[in-house]
Amino acid sequence: ITLNQAGFYPHAPKIAVVTQPVKGDSFYITPSHSQQIVFRGRLGKATRSVHSSTTTRIADFSAFTTPGDFVVVVPGAGQSPVFPVNAGVYHPVAVAALKGYYYQRSNIPLEARFAGQWHRPAGHPDTAVLVHPGAASATRPAGTVIATPGGWYDAGDYNKYIVNSGITMGTLLSAYEDFPGYFKQLNTNIPESGDALPDILNEAVYNLQWMLTMQDPADGGVYNKCTNADFDGMVMPGVTKAPRYVVQKGTAATLDFAAVTAQAARILQPFNPALATQCREAAGKAWQWALQHPALRYDQDSLNKVYQPAITTGGYGDRYFADEWLWAASELYITTRDPQFFSVVEKHIGDPVSLPSWANVGMLGYYSLLRAKDLPASTATVIQQMKERVLALANQYVMAANTSAFHTVMGQSPGDFIWGSSSVAANQGIVLLNAYRLTRDRRYAYAALGNLDYLLGRNATTYCFVTGIGSKSPLHPHHRLSIADGITAPVPGLLVGGPNPGRQDKSTYEFTEPETAYTDKAGAYASNEIAINWNAPLVYLVSGIDALKEE
Ligand code: G3I
Ligand code: 9MR
Prior knowledge:
Layout: E1 15-18, E2 26-31, E3 39-42, E4 47-48, E5 55-60, E6 68-74, E7 78-79, E8 83-85, H1 91-103, H2 112-115, E9 129-131, E10 145-146, E11 160-161, H3 162-178, H4 180-184, H5 199-213, E12 225-227, E13 245-246, H6 251-268, H7 273-292, H8 300-306, H9 322-336, H10 339-347, H11 362-371, H12 380-401, H13 421-439, H14 442-455, H15 480-484, H16 525-528, H17 532-547
Parallel strand pairs: 9-13
Antiparallel strand pairs: 1-5, 2-3, 2-6, 4-5, 6-7, 6-8, 9-10, 11-12, 12-13
Helix pairs in contact: 1-17, 3-5, 3-6, 3-11, 3-17, 5-6, 6-7, 6-9, 7-9, 9-10, 9-11, 11-12, 12-13, 13-14, 13-17, 14-17
The structure holds ligand G3I and ligand 9MR.
Ligand 9MR binds near residues 155, 156, 231, 314 and 525.
């Protein structure tokens, strides 16, 4: 019997899912420490999942609104984990998910007063990084030493990738722009806590400062990543002293950088005008570079045939740039109000738009334009089209949610179960929260909450996919820090990739069907790694839901 292990708000929908056959039709709820029955309900009809051989029965106890700690009991099938019902259940999840970024910081020591038992020395300083031969330019020949310190480690590995930082930063900055009041009070106990900036911005600025160092001041182009030639072993960061490189500049990295710095410029203006100005200028220079290189791919395999050493770390080698153009143009337009940028948005308004991922960022531009205030009337038609597209996608999600085996939007399509499928669920939640904010129609908010339920336990694996949260969460993520630190508990607040029938890591999986192809093994990087671009939509989703709970 599986459910959201973090618990439920008193006045929101509440569902548990029975994943084994039962004869009867009834279920009941008792407090965790007594046998007294406080609620009785009927199970829904048996539903065969389309993505695994699981058959489910739904126990809907939305009508139960009493605060406390409880279990759902299904005679003949046992009981659920203990879960709380109260208005504060998601606040710790929101704090943990944002705090997850602090633990990914590369170049500062993590002190015990902030990091608890996960305190550790600084990792890679990245103060002397080599320009890779494939990135050589007139002003920076191969082997030039540059400094590109700071920023978050991408994932379970110790490299720092601009493309993936792009969607991550865009999502976190958008969370702030959509829910500024919520984030003003969200304290994650990081070194900067208590200063003038909300902690979500303190955390984002830490990575932003690194991103700014990845731009070549000579031409405005942005290197794809700062990386080892090969992935480090399962050691603490900074233990190996392998050379670090910046590699070829690319259009995706440069436009993502332009989008992030443009968005950061307007957000930081009231807090730090000097940094805001630096960001605005950096965005403009990146845009100029992109105009000169409108479709330059970072093609690692091809580069490796020509340049030494070969680079075998993550590629993030996007090859379609229309969506990056749209996103960067949107952010630059909102920040500068220069119509040249809006004309690029218009040029791309006919492009297909899909759920955001590291390679697919167009919808981030939609979100920002839909939120922007005081735009001229001339933009209205284009923005109306964006609104219709977001609502159309949300409607498609909502329509099928209550017929699927787990009553979640996540998993309506087998294509949802890809590498990083947890981020699919979280990003669907963002689409739905945007639809809610545009309409105030609760069906969207409840469907978003259903995907949070999925991430926190209501899924075919019965895992809560966030480390340190709930009663059954990953203990062995593919996360070098968690593996090498000698501490039993993994670093908390990190969202693992989730079910991925591709199983590219070749580990042994106990279950292999789309929605169950997850294993809590350290070697299983295709389903059990963590990544900054997966945590960001979790931060958005759980914080957005918590911010909107009074509604
Ligand atoms: O997009 C296609 C989809 O259309 C198709 O249906 C599906 C079928 O397998 O494949 C999808 O592509 C997959 C893609 O992820 C989806 O985002 C690719 O097969 C899969 O190989 C690709 O995996 C990426 C992985 O790196 C390998 O390159 C992940 O997106 C990406 O998150 C992951 O990122 C790594 C970095 O390289 C290194 N750092 C860790 C990080 C997280 O694992
Ligand atoms: O640890 C790496 C992880 O961060 C990446 O997502 C993954 C895919 O690029 O690769 C992992 O590294 C593995 C490498 O690709 C193959 N040899 C084993 C490495 C991990 O143990």
